[in-house]
Amino acid sequence: MAFYLIILIGIFLILFNYNAIKKEHKSFNSILNHEVDNMDEFKVLLGENNEQFNQVIFDIRKELEDINGKFNSIVEMNKKNNEITVEKVETYDKIEDNKSKINTEADQFSNNIKINEISDLIKQGFSIEDIAGKLNIGKGEVLLIKELYIK
């Protein structure tokens, strides 16, 4: 009798588990179908987000092109300003060179006049002190000019 009881309990457990597996399978299919439907919704949302990102990227590229154009125009203006500045500096250098030449020539002319005056006064017989007093220069300068230029 115990044998029949164990077999009856085994059959009962098999039927009970078979029904549970069947219910679980139906439950899994419903969850799977629900998730597949949700995936379609996610695909739509991803498509919308993709379009938005593409629009943002397009706008950013457009702004970059505008900024690049402005940058290039600023670079061109800077080059022109540098060229003008270089021309001004070169002109200023030329003016300074001409000033120094004129000053040198004026100094030489002035020195030649002093030398000629001192030479004339020495030839007339004036002393070093008299020459220095007449020309308002120092005795040392008169002596220097006499020794260097007048022989």
Describe the overall structure:
- The protein is mostly helical and 151 residues long.
- The protein has two domains: 11-92; 107-151, Arc Repressor Mutant, subunit A, CATH 1.10.10.
- The chain has three helices and no strands.
- The chain has helices at 2-123, 128-135, 139-149.
- The longest helix has 122 residues, at 2-123.
- The radius of gyration is 56 Å and the shape is rod-shaped.
List keywords for this structure.
mainly alpha, Arc Repressor Mutant, subunit A, 151 residues, 2 domains
Task: Produce the secondary structure layout.
Blueprint: H1 2-123, H2 128-135, H3 139-149
Count, helices: 3
Instruction: Tell me the fraction of residues in β-strands, as a range.
Output: under 5%
Q: Give the SSE order as H and E letters.
A: HHH
- Helix/strand-derived class? mainly alpha
Number of domains: 2
Helix content estimate: over 70%
Alpha carbon gap, first and last residue: 163 Å
| Multimeric status of the protein | single chain
Radius of gyration: 56 Å
Tell me how many strands there are. 0
- Unreliable sequence segments: none
